[in-house]
Amino acid sequence: MAAVILDNGAYTAKVGFSTDNESRVVANYKAKAKNERKRAFIASQLDDCKDYSGLYYLLPFQKGFLVNWDVEREVWDFIFGKDLLNVSFKDTGMVITEPYFNFGSIQETMNEIFFEEYNFKSLLRTNAGTLSAFKNRQEDLKRLCCLVVDSGYSFTHVAPYCGGKKIVKAVYRIEVGGKMLTNHLKEMISYRQLHVMDETYVMNQVKEDVCYASLELYKDMEIARKKGKANTNMRDYVLPDYAHIKRGYTKPADDESKMEGHEQILRMNNERFTIPEILFHPSDIGIHQMGIPELIVQSIQQCPEEMQPHLYMNIVLTGGNMLFPGIQERVYKEVRALAPDYYKVNVHCPENAITYAWTGGKALVGEQNTFKKMSVTREQYEEHGQNICIETFDV
Q1: What Pfam families does its record include (predicted)?
Q2: How far, in Å, CA of 81 to CA of 84, rounded?
Q3: Which is deepest, 158, 209, 254, 335, by most CB within 10 Å?
Q4: Please, how many CA atoms are within 13 Å of residue 388, restricted to the half-sphere of its CB?
Q5: d(Cα 197, Cα 207) in Å, to the nearest integer?
Q6: For residue range 16-40, what is the model confidence (pLDDT) as tens digits?
Q7: For 324-364, how does the pLDDT look when each residue is reduced to its tens digit (9 = 90+)?
Q8: Distance of alpha carbon 37 from alpha carbon 290, whole angstroms
């Protein structure tokens, strides 16, 4: 049976059929541009936008949870419709992800929408980390346990798995995600150089293009204090103007270079590494929670002792925030310093960190027997209602 796999992130939706080789990554929101107020861009329509400056967002998610159903339905209608997937609902299964500790009212509404409005043949509601753990196990059947770090738009979750089952009491969350990092970068740039508080889309690109996780923070801070060519950390970021430059780009900073004609430049210095540093020290911006390495160790310590060496040996980094250069080495370095000496530590970051959960969903649908056991069919839902979903879905 073919199935639609939808990793329904708060910022992007990773979606495709189980028969597809790769997922499509589309915006999971509506957006309006300054120059086209009458038109709203939904999902992949955002590629048609000609000017991303001052983009106004209508987000279905707030603080990591799905609350604006009207916007989400519009996005789903577009994804399932003729413009993208063209789904035949009655012959197709559905796999959708939701955050850990999701509210029961949201879960019930999702069940109703997929069975009663869209009429999918079957439904599997699960966590993105569960799909990532399934994919990790499939890559090497000797890996009984894994610890999934999922750092997305709103949250960062750490969840240990053994034999495909999550250890619920050891799942932890910190309130730091990509949205917070981008907002903090906007504040820093607005305070130091140029007012960019309305330029979320552009500053998100700046963050992705320029920032990195520092392996030696104090050394990088010393370099950032230097003047001229001695400051090897400094970069000039040329902002897009959407007339001559469609997407911003970096170039090495040079004291003697001046802005040319239409070029508008941001000078990026210690912002390059202090923004990702929030993932390791949330207290830097007043959030009194642990950073990712401490969270990993805390989570593993909550698991049975015989499981702990296997979890330290298989830490998997997923989500958009795990794409910062140097983050894999930084997590390894800090976890190694915190973990007991007699345990080996191995941190793995897949190439497709954003779509890794989606590929896990594809692998799961491929194992039909497992998939059927975890899913609820439309007939079962019509007979038993919400109760069958509560009993079947492990979320």
Answers
A1: Actin
A2: 6
A3: 158
A4: 19
A5: 14
A6: 999 999 999 999 999 988 877 788 8
A7: 999 999 999 999 999 999 999 999 999 889 999 999 999 99
A8: 42
330 contacts 280 by C-beta, under 8 angstroms: yes
CA-CA distance, 96 to 4, in Å (whole number)?
8
By CB atoms closer than 10 A (0-12, 13-18, 19+), residue 199 is buried
pTM of the model: 0.92
Tokens encoding 108: 């019930």
Which residues, including other chains, have CB under 8 Å from residue 137's CB and lie 6 or more apart? 143, 144, 146, 164
Q: Tokens for 104?
A: 């029961």
User: Which of left, alpha, beta for 319 (phi over 0: left; psi -120 to 50: alpha)?
Assistant: left
Predicted pLDDT of residue 322: 95
Q: Which domains does the chain have, with CATH numbers?
A: 3-127+354-392 (3.30.420.40), 131-176+282-348 (3.30.420.40), 178-276 (3.90.640.10)
266-304 confidence digits (pLDDT tens): 999 999 999 999 999 999 888 899 999 999 999 999 999
> Position of tokens 């794409």?
323
Tokens of 283: 């207290």
361-364: which pairs have CB atoms within 8 A and are 24 or more residues apart?
Answer: 361/5, 361/7, 361/18, 361/95, 361/97, 361/131, 362/5, 362/16, 362/18, 362/20, 363/134, 363/135, 363/138, 364/95, 364/124, 364/131, 364/134
Provide the CB-side half-sphere exposure for 31 (13 A, CA): 26
SS3 of residue 316 by DSSP: strand
Stated as kind and residue range, the H or E segment containing 371 is helix 368-374
